Amino acid sequence: MPFSNSGISKLRRQWITFEMSLRYGRWSVKKTLLGLTLMTVFGFLLFCIYHLTYSVELLPWNPSVDNWCEYEKVPEYMLLPAPDEITVVTMFLDLGVFKKGEEYFSYHSPYKYKRWMRTFGKMVNRVVAYMENDEHIEYFRKIRSCLPESHTKIIKIHRQELPSFNHLAQIQHIYSQPSYPKHYPNTIYPEYSCAMHAKYDVLQRSCVMDFFKTPYFAWVDVGLFRKLDDTDYPLFKLVPPDKFNPERIGFSQAWPQDPAIPPEYILKKKLVWVSGSMVLATKEYMLNFTRDYKMAVKELLDQGLSNTDQEVINAMYSAKMRKPNYIKIKTYMCHQGQLGLYGAESRYFCLGYVCKYAWEKRVPHVKDKLSVNAHSNR
């Protein structure tokens, strides 16, 4: 019993000593909690700053542009129009910062799109670009400044001028319904859906204007060749894939198609068949497709259904909605690692890299020759 009492007394004295040191010593409980709180807040701020800078890329300035023509010249054979030359059509509409996907910090910003845009600086195709303001126009002109001025046509537009933005109020009404499924950004931001539909407005306009008199036209997303950005990649061109049927329209196949799935299920569940990152066709068939696409968008809206172009195209070619006059689609699939593509890029960006590779095959060892020239001129 004396031993037991002695042990308890010793423990009690140790606890009192510990309690007194916390209360009155260098590190009191309040000071400790305050220090931990400040460290937590500081750590959280660093975490946010890191992701805002490197994930969201929320930066107020424009990405730098490499003036590569100071040490490299475009070979003459690349400037000559090929018999199957493609006019590349693209557009940049500033939608601000918006969430893309369900993951944390999966946001896109104007800076990120401008960074991806730099890859157009080494694309030696004729390009028609649609921009909304002078600052974006000057930036894109700077990106294309090392290529002949005759290879670039920049058109200033306002989104309200594009027919697809006439659907904004109707799309907004559909997405505001609590029962309509919510997918970032497809069915959350009406402006995003309108921008995806507007691709076919500017494609149609470009085919009608036919600035460069080329047999083929292609929509190319600003971010299609994003993996080339900030790398020492050589100049490149896009030409139609080998044995491309001029009576078809080309897409990358993202997922298999089931024609039996009804359009309502496709749009509400965000089911994708082909990628909208690149669309390829001859002038005649591109005009027919853009007409059919715009009619399909209106038909779906009248049924209270909306999503982006990828879901609309899947619905268009479903058994329930497909029309006899629709242009047949030729899909391209890339395996993991093929043409340097991995993950989702191998599904969504395949056609763009197939077109790039089709041109490279016409000029043996083009990558090696251009890379050697670039390094020897530095």
- Would you identify the regions where 5 or more consecutive residues have pLDDT less than 50? 370-378
How many runs of DSSP E, i.e. beta strands? 9
Beta strand %? 5-15%
**What structural class do the secondary elements suggest?**
alpha/beta
How far is the first residue's CA from the last residue's CA?
90 Å
Describe the biggest sheet?
7 strands, mixed
Radius of gyration: 28 Å
Instruction: State the order of secondary-structure elements, H for helix, E for strand.
Output: HHHEEEHEHEHHEEHEHHEHHH
Mean pLDDT: 90
Shape: globular
Strand arrangement in the largest pleated sheet: 5-4-1-6-8-7-9
Note the total helix count.
Answer: 13
Helix content: 40-55%
Description:
- The protein is α/β, with parallel strands linked by helices.
- The chain is 43% helix and 12% strand.
- The chain is built from 13 helices and nine strands.
- The strands form two sheets. A seven-stranded mixed beta sheet has the order 5-4-1-6-8-7-9, sandwiched between helices.
- Strand 2 and strand 3 form a beta hairpin.
- Helix 7 packs antiparallel against helix 9.
- The longest helix is centred in the first third of the chain and has 26 residues.
- The C terminus is likely disordered.
- Pfam families: HtrL_YibB.
- Keywords: Membrane, Transmembrane, Transmembrane helix.
SSE topology sketch:
Elements: H1 2-24, H2 29-54, H3 76-79, E1 86-92, E2 98-99, E3 107-108, H4 110-117, E4 126-131, H5 134-143, E5 152-156, H6 168-175, H7 190-209, E6 216-220, E7 249-253, H8 263-269, E8 274-282, H9 283-302, H10 309-316, E9 329-332, H11 345-348, H12 350-362, H13 366-376
Parallel strand pairs: 1-4, 1-6, 4-5, 7-9
Antiparallel strand pairs: 2-3, 6-8, 7-8
